[in-house]
Amino acid sequence: MKELWKKISFCSVLLFVCSLVCVFSAAEAKKMQSISDAKAAALKKVPSATVVEVDKDYDDGVLVYGVELLKSGKEYNLEYRASDGKLMKYEWEIKMPSNKDRTGKVKTNALKKAEAKALKKVAGAQITSSSKKKDDGMTQCKIVLKKGSKKYKLVYSASTLRLLEYEWEIVSSSQSSSSQYIGNAKAKSIALNKVPNATVTELEFDTDDGVAVYEVTLVKGIYEYEIKIDAKSGKILEYEKDIND
């Protein structure tokens, strides 16, 4: 009887060890360990694309792989978290918009129509900001939305209402309210101090090359201003002034 219990105990221990090995192996399989892994994942997401570049970097202290691809006139940018291979950011942009997109007559109520299209594209999302501006000689409508843990940005041609750019990224709900950042109110104050008596039309919390920033858009008279502010120090990193069409 003792020998039987010894055999049963040994088998139980062996099964337990095997289960641990299986769990560990599964976790390792999910982990993105190399540029090749990132490239393979990106090509699975965008089949038949051409990989232009793959790099490894840190985004807010988290190791990520960024993959740039080209397919059918679109440039794709995907970002994977190395610890578990999760896709954290997905973006595509049309590289060569048509002449109608660029120089066509801006549609009446283009911004409202773009908002409606964006809400249809991302069902159940909520618009957090929208703006119409001229970029590289083309009038565009930019719509920013939030749904769950994802932030979306959709850019439409104001002339054709064609979707030119689509992006989503997973963001932390506490990002912009973290105690280490200056906060929306302070960022708005800094921007208005730079452009007194202007009207703030858009304020976004974002990351730029791993640096947390506030992007503030203002309008004053015939001019539109874009100011990028370091989210920790409050220092103005970029300042642009253009005629607002």
Overall pLDDT metric:
86
What is the H/E string? HHEEEEHHEEEEHEEEE
- List the domain count as a whole number: 3
Helix content: 25-40%
Q: Could you tell me the CATH topology label of the largest domain.
A: Nuclear Transport Factor 2, Chain: A
The largest beta-sheet arranges its strands as 1-2-3-4-8-7-6-5
Provide a descriptive summary of the structure in words:
- By secondary structure, the chain is α+β, with helices and mostly antiparallel strands.
- The protein folds into three domains: 30-96, Nuclear Transport Factor 2, Chain: A (Roll); 99-171, Nuclear Transport Factor 2, Chain: A; 184-243, Nuclear Transport Factor 2, Chain: A.
- It has helices at residues 2-30, 35-45, 99-103, 110-121, 184-194; strands spanning 50-59, 62-71, 74-81, 87-94, 126-135, 138-147, 150-157, 163-170, 199-208, 211-220, 223-230, 236-243.
- It has an eight-stranded antiparallel β-sheet.
- It is globular.
- 20% of the residues are buried.
- Mean pLDDT is 86; it is low at 13-29.
Task: Provide the fold topology.
Elements: H1 2-30, H2 35-45, E1 50-59, E2 62-71, E3 74-81, E4 87-94, H3 99-103, H4 110-121, E5 126-135, E6 138-147, E7 150-157, E8 163-170, H5 184-194, E9 199-208, E10 211-220, E11 223-230, E12 236-243
Antiparallel strand pairs: 1-2, 2-3, 3-4, 4-8, 5-6, 6-7, 7-8, 9-10, 10-11, 11-12
